[in-house]
Amino acid sequence: MTTVLTRAVARLLLAPVLMVAAAVLVKGYADVGDGFAAGVIAALGVLLQYLAFGRAAVERALPVRRAAQLAVGGLLLALAVAFLPALAGGAPLQHAPPPGDEVVKLGSLELIGAVAFDVGVFALVLGMAVATIGLIAATGDEEEGRT
Amino acid sequence: MRPGEKVPATARELSASAVGAAAVAVAAVAALAVLAVWRSGGGGVDVAWLPSWGARLAFRLDGLGALYGLLATGIGVATFTYATAYLPRHLEHEERPQGEGRRFHALMVLFMVAMVGLATAQDLLVLFVFWDLTAVASYLLIGFDRQHREARLSALMALLVTGVSAVVLLIGILILRAELGTTSIPALLERAQGGRAVTLAGALIAVGALAKSAQVPLHFWLPRAMAAPTPVSAYLHSAAMVAAGVFVLSRLHPLLATSPALLDGLLVVGLVSMAVGGVLALGADHLKRLLAYSTIAQYGYVVTMLGVGGAAGAAAACFYVLAHALAKSALFMTSGAVTEATGGKALSEVGGLARAMPALAVGSGLAAAGLAALPLTIGFFKDELFFKAAAERGPWLAVLAVASAALTFAYITRFWTGIFLGDLRRPARALPGRLVVPVVVLGGLVLVGGVLVGPFAALSEDAAQVTAAAPVAVAAAYHLDLRVENVMALATYALGLVLVAGRPALAGALAGFARLGRRAGPERAYVAALAALNRISNSIHDIEVRDLRARVAAVLVPAGALVGIGVAVTPFEGAYLVGSFSRGDLPLVVVLAACMLAALVVTRLRRHLPLAIALSGVGFTLAVAYALLGAPDVTLVAVLIETLFTLLFVATFALLPRRVLMREAALRPYGSRRFRDPVVGVISGLLVLLVVWAALSRPTPTDASANRQLALAEQAHGKDVVTVILADFRGLDTLVEVTVVLVALLGVAALLRRGKLW
Fold first, then answer.
1. pLDDT class for A146, splitting at 50, 70, 90?
2. Per the CB < 8 Å rule, is A92 touching B732?
3. What is the pLDDT of residue B245?
């Protein structure tokens, strides 16, 4: 139902799209973009696969059935980043490292608490979007009698 | 399985009985703990809870807490034991799985915990939490037989009457807090010096408490609540739920006593409840309902005594609660056991059971004697103290007290003799020991209290000292002389016997009174109010959900009205400025014009796919406008969201059969809707325009905070201030928002996959 060209482009685009999403995510603190935008970008990449190959093929190739777990995991990560400092006597969402301290760097990547929070948001948004796409696709297949 | 072979107990049955046994054990341990702490002079905990409200999780087991705590746990042991035998048979009658017993026992324990928490709470907010917890547990317990409509309605009635009055109580608490600046009970009692606000708060609290104790005119829920399984009635409706009301009155009595009018009000309510409950009990036929009316009357005594106040009133009230709980619980369990053995639920269906059930007859006979205040039972002293306090108040109250006590004597005599004496109406099956032993034990306690009153008097003395906020001596003893209490007791017995003998002649009048109560009583008002509220709710619901657009209008119209009020009251000066226009703004104007065009197109389209694309056109042109305004983060998100949503729209359309889409697209708005939708849309749009215009016309006060956040972003190791705000400065907001995202996913899954996420 889709042309060879669509499928080829979709296949070729998946890796770059995910790469862009990752870049937007980790560089969000220094440049345009954040976890939310990154999650939507990655979800669009997955959606493209659904459009090009159909649900069954995507479910074979990608771990999309775990999307809901990913969403829950993202929320848990965000909650943990927010409230674990409170257990240690700090304020919720306390800034780590504290202002003025040296930031640990991994290449040009800066490791700060808020980035972990943003990763949680990313996982939640990606999981939510992919799970919704999967649910709609599954419903469509059921109506048409495919399983 | 061969016939006659014993059905093996399933794991669920076993676990239900294990939960029941655990409930008994918990109650026993709790009772011993309360006793031990009380004997050692009391104790408590005090932890910070809501610092900004000044509320603390403060519990203290003082005399009053010990009295009600011991009632909740001690009567708990008896009724929980009874329930372990009653419930399996009950579930069998109702043809329900035995496993449901677990829920029952757990709820009973929850209720007990709530009562102990209530009795020991030293902060009104904490007290209120436990107060509501008892209401919730009571709702679930009264409605335990949920397959019966009667049980469901009764549970709802109990919840509404005690729940709505609990809100009144809460208002009282908040007035006190506003007036005296604290919710800590000791501090409140110290600071309360009377005054109108305190009196008003006291009155509101009293309303809540009186509804909980089923006092007239808010008494009608209690007879209905007899739809509950018998252990619930024996526990909640003798010693716990209904006791909570008079407990709060006792706890806050020094505060209530600052207003003589409040105490007089209590006196009147108590006397009326005594009379109404007593008369209804004398006329009742249904066993449990008779006891429920009796409970209304008996707590009327307590409320009367609290209204009398002073040392004598406090002593009588506290002792009365103790003596009544022992006797009434045993009588409720008796009625359940009798119904279990014979199937008879009313006095007219049973009789002559003394020979078949001698132990039950003796146990409940002692309890009945206690309620009738015969000598050698603890009940004698409850009436002795009651008569003493009444006589001190004045001769008119003494007369009313004797009349009510005679009513009690008469109906309880009728109850016991009607069950155990006379002709055998229905044969009785043998009962398991656990249905009889608790009755005998409680009956025995009633007898012990009549001989060795010391410990009981000491307990109520401690409690009464809290109520009266002064030293109190509970002088319970037998005196073989013609002092006024003894004369009143003798008069009670005589009048009671006359009432018993003359009841057949009064039957018509009693039935007429009960009928009058049904026709014109407060229950009618409750039913009518409920029906009216339901009608209002239904009509609003109909308007709101008739179709999707009506639902949107239901949001837009009230919001528009609020915004309109806001616009109207805001000064117009400087609000609607037209700024200057430079050539550099030309691209922005073009883009916004395109956006407007797309929005207009949306209103004209009928087919679904063009509609979705036109909607995304609105979004994309807005994204371009953001880009021109120099907001790359917002632009990025807008583009991504528009893309995703457009694709999801299209995917959803693909799910619907083509002919459904065509049919929907061909539908024309009919009737009033042709005008309603454009009018709603245009008016709400105009109001939004006015608000945005007015807001943009003013110099933005947020510049300062924006600059501060820009400066702080550096310290937060961030360069993109939007991300820093989202993930750091306003991180909690983001957290709540992403939680909503997950909830939305649950909604989608519920719609498409019946809630299955994976």
1. low
2. yes
3. 92
Percent with pLDDT over 70 in chain B = 95
SS3 B531: helix
Q: What is the pLDDT of residue B391?
A: 87
d(CA B365, CA B327): 10
Q: Which residue has the higher pLDDT, A87 or B237?
A: B237
Q: Which of B616, B642, B723, B736 to mutate to test the interface with A (most CBs of A within 10 A)?
A: B723
**CB–CB of B205/B507 below 8 Å?**
no
Using a CB-CB cut-off of 8 Å, the residues of chain B touching A131 are 745, 748-749, 757
For residue B739, the chain A residue with the least C-alpha distance is: A75
Does residue B334 contact residue B290 with C-beta atoms inside 8 Å?
no
Residue in B639, B720, B738 to test binding to A, most A beta-carbons within 10 Å: B738
Residues of A in contact with B658 (CB under 8 A): none
* Token pair in block for residue B394: 């004045």
Q: Per-residue DSSP letters for B470-487?
A: S----------S--HHHH
Yes or no, beta carbons of B727 and A117 under 8 Å apart: yes
Query: CA geometry: angle at B338 spanning B336 and B343, to 5°?
Result: 95
Taking the CA of residue A65 and the nearest CA in chain B, the distance in Å comes to 7
The Cα B367–Cα B373 span in angstroms is: 10
Q: Cβ separation of B720 and A133 shorter than 8 Å? A: no
> Closest partner residue to B734 among A97, A121, A135, by Cβ?
A121
A21 in contact with B at a CB cutoff of 8 Å?
no
Interface test with B, best of A50, A95, A133 (most B CBs within 10 A): A95
Instruction: Check pLDDT > 50 for residue A17.
Output: yes
Q: Given this model, what pLDDT does residue B444 score?
A: 92
Closest in B640, B648, B727 to A37, CB measured: B640
Cα gap B338→B170, rounded to integer Å: 41
Beta bridge partners of B95: none
Burial of B392 (C-beta count, 10 Å sphere; 0-12/13-18/19+): middle
Of B640, B654, B724, the CB nearest to A29: B724
CA distances from B283 to B292, B348, B392, B499, B506 (A): 12, 12, 31, 12, 9
Residues of chain B positioned with their CB less than 8 A from the CB of A30? 718-720
Q: Between chains, do A95 and B716 touch, taking CB under 8 Å as contact?
A: yes
Domain range enclosing A91: 4-143
Please, what is the Cα angle at A71 between A69 and A73, to 5 degrees?
A: 65
Average pLDDT of adjacent 10-residue blocks, chain B of 758 residues:
47 75 92 90 78 79 91 93 90 86 91 93 92 92 90 91 92 91 87 86 93 90 89 88 92 90 92 92 90 93 90 89 92 91 88 88 92 89 88 88 92 91 85 89 91 87 87 80 84 89 84 85 88 91 77 82 82 75 87 92 86 92 90 88 87 80 78 76 84 77 69 72 76 85 85 69
The total of structural domains in chain A comes to: 1
Select from B654, B727, B742 the Cβ nearest to the Cβ of A124: B742
Tell me, what's the pLDDT at B136? Answer: 92
Q: Give the residue extent of every domain in chain B.
A: 9-258, 260-533, 703-758
Spatial distance between the Cα atoms of B104 and B144, rounded to a whole number of angstroms: 8
In this complex, the residue of A71, A117, A133 whose CB is nearest that of residue B731 is: A117
Could you tell me if A114 lies within 8 Å of chain B, comparing CB atoms?
yes
Distances (CA, A) of B397 to B48, B267, B280, B320: 46, 10, 21, 17
Do β-strands A109-111 and A104-106 pair in parallel, antiparallel, or remain unpaired? antiparallel
Query: Can you say how many angstroms the Cα of residue B442 is from the centroid of all Cα atoms in its chain?
Result: 29
